[in-house]
Amino acid sequence: MAAKVRKAVFPVAGQGTRFLPATKVVPKEMLPIVDKPLIQYAVEEAKEAGIEEFIFVDSRGKTMIANHFDYNPELEDALFAKGKHELLKKVQESTLPSGLAAYTRQEKALGLGHAIWCARKFIANEPFAVLLPDDLFFYTPNCLKQLVDEYERTGGYLLAVHDIPVEDTNKYGVLKIAKDDGLTVTAEILVEKPKPEEAPSNVAVAGRYILSPEIFEALEKKAIGSGGEIQLTDAITSSLGKVTCTGLRFKGKRFDCGTMEGWLEANLYVGLQREDSRDLLTAYLEKLGFSRENKDSDF
Ligand code: UTP
Q: How many structural domains compose the chain?
């Protein structure tokens, strides 16, 4: 049986240029979907999937993320004194217990692969999860939990994958597939952002991974790939002789909140799901001329 996945890495050192000027000071990962920052959705997903240790790879200007997960006595005291117990609960739920969160620096944004390499000493010698906080997933069980459950069977590298329109392959890491049983695929290689006409398939990686320490040997080479960055997909490919790589077609919705379109859609989706905003938002959309046949259905 594969070892338990106890640790998760959250790469949060990117520059978030697609969201400038919002991200000039505020980290992209702190942008809220309705009233909760993206990074908190990812941490909650990891907790629910059984993760016990949380490793953040951050950079200058991202200390807001560590502060977000820290204890804030002044705020808690003020909310308590005013009897705002619901809000107090929300604040307390966003705190990570002492000693279970670690923060390390990626000095230069050299790419996702390099960011993961920066976490190597914290991972040491066990499998670990990677969550890209700008990818937001909704389903029960959540996306990482689906991977953790499947990992008991597969071991090796296990990636969340989905079928994408062929014209979008240049936005993703794409798998060349050796075997496909409908739910899982076995990857032969991964290609980062191939042109549609050169893509080996339309099965693409989404922002949830389970990896094993072999990835660090590959990342150690610091090979420069697509976009001049050290790519995680290249490191996965280069260790495939030693480790198997399986893709799990995750169930549920995914929003790419690293793009304005995905971020706006996610806000609408969550706003229309939540009881405290659904009616207000629906009324506003109807006023604008949009209608929903069935207000309670998923969309
Ligand atoms: P993106 O590819 O979305 O890059 O990173 P980005 O820099 O955040 O955003 P744009 O493209 O400039 O708009 C995906 C995830 O990987 C992290 C980011 O913080 C984000 O969570 N990342 C990316 C790093 O930690 N380091 C890097 O060098 C690159």
A: 1
